[in-house]
From TrEMBL:
Organism: Xiamenia xianingshaonis
InterPro entries: AAA+_ATPase (IPR003593), ABC_transporter-like_ATP-bd (IPR003439), MacB-like_ATP-bd (IPR017911), P-loop_NTPase (IPR027417)
Residue ranges annotated for the ABC transporter domain, each copy included: 4-233
Sequence similarity: Belongs to the ABC transporter superfamily.
PANTHER family given in the database record: ABC TRANSPORTER ATP-BINDING PROTEIN MG467-RELATED (PTHR42798:SF2), LIPOPROTEIN-RELEASING SYSTEM ATP-BINDING PROTEIN LOLD (PTHR42798)
Name assigned to this protein: ATP-binding cassette domain-containing protein
Amino acid sequence: MAFLEVADVRKGYGEGDAHIEVIKGVSTSLEKGDFASLLGPSGSGKSTFLNIVGGLEPCDGGRVVVDGVDITGLSDREVGEYRRAELGFVFQFYNLIPDLTVCENIEVCAHLSEDPLPLDDLLRSLGLWDQRRKFPRQMSGGQQQRCAIGRALVKNPKLLLCDEPTGALDYQTSLEILALMEEVNREYGCTVVVVTHNDAIARMSNRIMRLHDGMLVEDSVNEERVPALSLEW
Ligand code: ADP
Ligand code: MG
């Protein structure tokens, strides 16, 4: 069985006449260690799909199996446990806790895990050692996103889900953040899914998925992976 199995997932919003179908029967699978890009225009269902895989939203039909566990069949408490134990989430706008330093922001997430990564090593590999006592408002967007990746990563998650992680960053900073994600995928072996509407980013991944109007219109293997730092867009 694959690490992630998604079978005929469906999701809609609204009642009666206002009902819209947003995910229309999506099936795919990822192997452990895959680095996948999820592409598609705005409104195509990328965030909804990622949130379903991450247990942030329930689906209306179908199954999502992560590492042998059907998360669509879990109770709310069990889904919460799955998110805490197995998952890292990274969002476009960092979602850091403003009153905590870099170090503390990461530390609170370390407590969610029985086997967190060593904090000092992680701060160094994120390039945040010198920034560790700063508050989010004292840092650039790229540094804040590094901290957010640290929060996601310190739990040593099996699956790292990233929703437009470079959407608010300039080109050069985006490349550096993507290079960091590449390193995370390689060094820590976690499976990564990056949502983006930038086709160029997909060239660094070994799997490319594309949503259009709630349907998966491309699901392919990328044989010619390009290192993040040499991407151009
Ligand atoms: P993407 O991330 O690809 O831009 P989304 O998954 O955010 O797309 O949204 C897909 C569609 O679902 C859009 O039409 C959006 O308006 C709708 N949608 C998303 N979340 C909700 C919600 N909570 N309630 C109603 N409609 C929603
Ligand atoms: Mg989105």
